[in-house]
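To whoever is on call:

I kicked off a structure prediction for a single chain this morning and the downstream step that reads the tokens threw a length-mismatch warning. I double-checked the sequence; it's 106 residues and nothing unusual in it as far as I can see. Pasting both halves so you can look.
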Amino acid sequence: MCPPPKEALMDSMDALFYCLKNEENAAVRAILGHYMFVYIHPYIDGNGRIARLLMNSMFLSGGYSWTIVHEKNRDEYLNCLETITADQNFLPFVLFLKEEQNREHL
């Protein structure tokens, strides 16, 4: 996954904020916002942690549970993000997050 050029950072962040502000469905906001933040990659370090915090705040705003991406599942998590970039296919990421949510409730 290659982030946009630094010249596009402000426009990319504006697009992210527009999405977060205008998307009514909290799950869509959470998943799309997470991906967009990771893709934009605005910081040198901590982008994934901030993206997961952003995702969870969006999930919670819609009444969904907190979702922890466990270290042992990190490779699958990263592969799902790569699939979005390569194929514009969010389904593996959606299913992965649902599975992570279900693990928390066992």
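Update from on-call: the warning came from a stale cache, not from the record. Cleared it. Sanity check on the structure: The CA atoms of residues 84 and 91 lie 8 Å apart.
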